[in-house]
């Protein structure tokens, strides 16, 4: 469990440091979940367009767009649960970072805006994580085609956010969530995420169900699971249960 | 119209009796819709893990997992509308039963929890009915990966439930729904459900629309429909309209 | 920017006039968005079944069903943003017209009903625009299989509507929306809509992301976008920004 600072503008250095932090935390067995939050007022205001306005669409620009796309994929594909904590405005590319997280907690002060079309751009890399993963295509149409800025409660109803709290209750909500996450089997999280990717890529119908039966039996055959379920009915806690007692604000700055 | 008791734990005997009840009601022309409700406080608390803890993942376990998966498919694929009535907690495999229903009515006291990951398991068989059928993959991620327990109103907003009422208003709500369901053409229900399965399995685009045009013209060519539409504009009620006057609590226990 | 009267019943003449209006507005560079609204109390009460009851399912009926299906496709596929303004009841085929729009604004007095099954029919042509484009299959099941009539707020939560306002605030809301729409690059709107169609038709996974990277770089390479982004960081407004100062009620009747 740790905390990566989302920063304000996605420039090549920040994208690179987020990649490195996520890669390191993913491989660290001691890390049970990953928290993305900003140390500033805004969660993330999108791509830093300096590289673009300075150098055009040459190799540098291509590289940063690709690195951003891969960052979203790394968040989504991470074997651990990635939590996004949103306490202020999120815009453009920042919405993609939030959308790629598995769990999104927001304060009342959060807002979401995809206003690329004002500048003639489109939120191309963001859309695979919004479309189908978070909301239907026509809801996305409203957000993107009318450049609407929606508040946290609307985002909660529309699938961009999973919990909304008053700013003063955010740390408490995070600790409550953290306690649940620390009791979850890390192996089950990785298996669930892999299973869902497989399911999303499978054609609708019987095949999906056959795979589901097989996946459950495979997982239930593991000694870790057998022991946990048997122990649970005897009142024992599974081996992977951990207490969650963070002190102070949850935050480690990624340099 | 009838009522199958959902029971508390999905053990082989209950799964089998639900299969039999659904099969019988499906073929009975006098049954216009099927109601799944529990006689206990909980709608359904998931699979009974006794077979698993006792016998491991041998043939018996395989059989019950497959029977459960086929139960969800039978509910979803049933030619009649299946209504789930939820008045208390629903957990794990019970969420699959609710999710597979066509219409879900809940009381304020209902809650929904997919906490398999605590025990190292994943809700594999449930997910095809949640994912895309009820909510996007990232909303499901929150429920499953953080083992969140959500209340009836949240479930209403997130697609697990279609109506929420105070406990004292449940029978009234059910009767109101029943009155509508008894006026609906049973043949149209079967055709609609078959058409939607076809649509979901079709690639997005023109093909879907061509099939839709064809489906409507085929259905509109039926004598039953011609008579109903013509009669309707003359102020007559279609032949399949039935009154709905149940007495007392809607309930027939499946033994 | 203009306004086509949705009328009450979708008869061949109205469908044809909507086709013509949409075709003309689509090709007119001066039109920045298209507004569909009704001059009557109801937005649209569905297909006029007179042709059907009079002539059965012969060529005339086939023609009107196909023209309706193509109307929805024209709205959805239009290169400009199509806004639906709903101030009263919407039923059956009318729900398809609303669902095919990119942005839907409703007053508190709006209601939505898909009650085809009462007459033995199914809303076949409507479903491709509801299913996946607006809501999951089980939510659609509730609406169609139980013929529920839902109010504007429920429609807002369930993806049929994007904004709900008191009747007296509708013109103000429309002007606020219009101001945003007039600042959006018309080329970006067309590109976004084409990109999303491509994305929806692509298999989930890496391919989607590769296309997204390519789409963004292609668009960012355009001189119009380069100039806009560069100008924006210098405090200039893009060339396509327009003021939106309509006078009186927004309405041009399609004859």
Structure description:
The structure is a homotrimer of 255-residue chains. Chain A has helices spanning 12-27, 50-55, 59-77, 93-100, 127-130, 137-145, 152-158, 170-181, 186-201, 206-220, 223-233, and strands at residues 2-5, 33-37, 81-86, 89-91, 103-107, 111-113, 149-151, 163-165. The first copy, chain A, has 255 residues and is α/β, with parallel strands linked by helices. Chain A has two domains: 2-181, Alpha-Beta Complex (2-enoyl-CoA Hydratase, Chain A, domain 1); 186-233, no CATH class. In chain A, the strands form two sheets. The first copy, chain A, has a five-stranded parallel beta sheet with strand order 1-2-3-5-8, sandwiched between helices. A three-stranded mixed beta sheet of chain A has the order 4-6-7. The radius of gyration of chain A is 19 Å and the shape is globular. The model of chain A has no long low-confidence stretch (mean pLDDT 89). Chains in contact: A-B, A-C, B-C. Chains A and B meet through α8, α9, α10 and α11 of A and α3 and α6 of B.
